[in-house]
Amino acid sequence: MKGRLFIISAPSGAGKSTLCQKLRQYYPEIQYSVSFTTRQPRKNESNGIDYNFISRQDFEEGIQENRWAEWACVHDNYYGTSRELIESYLETGKDVLLEIDVQGMKQMIEKFPDAITIFIKPPSMDILKERLESRGTDAPDVIKKRLTNARKEMAFENIYQYRIINDDLQTASKELIALFQKTTHESP
After folding, report:
1. The whole model's pTM is what?
2. 5-184 maps to which CATH number?
3. Which of 23, 161, 2, 162 is nearest to 97 (CA)?
4. Hey, where are the domains in the chain?
5. Residue pair 5/115 in contact by the 8 Å Cβ criterion
6. Per-residue confidence of the chain (188 residues) as pLDDT tens digits?
7. Which residues, at least 6 apart from 40, have a Cβ–Cβ distance to it below 8 Å?
8. What is the DSSP letter of 127?
């Protein structure tokens, strides 16, 4: 039996990484696809765990060699998912969790139309701004760019099969776990 592909997207700061971590704690057998990126690691990020950090040149070679199942340039950095890795997991019956942006999701559902798509929403733009500022990782101009991109991304929430509002982390994580349980017991 083939594995199932779960795609989770959200604007930067909406809590998708935290929710994905909660899901992975509850379901440690799910394969988490670690994306590749050309951006610099943040504090407490580890290569191969949070992202595979590679050079811009290596990433662009991957584009030319068709190594990416999806890729995009977001916030002036490349992000992408290994085609070979996703296909090998699914073929061996493993469920896969992807944490990618809206652009990436659109590319992925063209290649993997049975994917289960989930959009994580912040409760409001004001709360999203507060979350981005409280992280303390981005300059004010970067936060402004992330908020502009968030508005654009949220315009596509209706193309996702499921939507979860991350107003309360405990409630949102329970919703995500329940959704995973429901969809893994449905036939593809």
Report:
1. 0.84
2. 3.40.50.300
3. 23
4. 5-184
5. yes
6. 889 999 999 988 888 889 999 999 999 999 999 999 999 998 889 999 889 999 999 999 999 999 999 998 877 899 999 999 999 999 999 999 999 888 889 999 999 999 999 999 998 889 888 888 888 777 888 889 888 888 999 999 999 999 999 999 999 999 999 999 888 655 44
7. 53
8. H
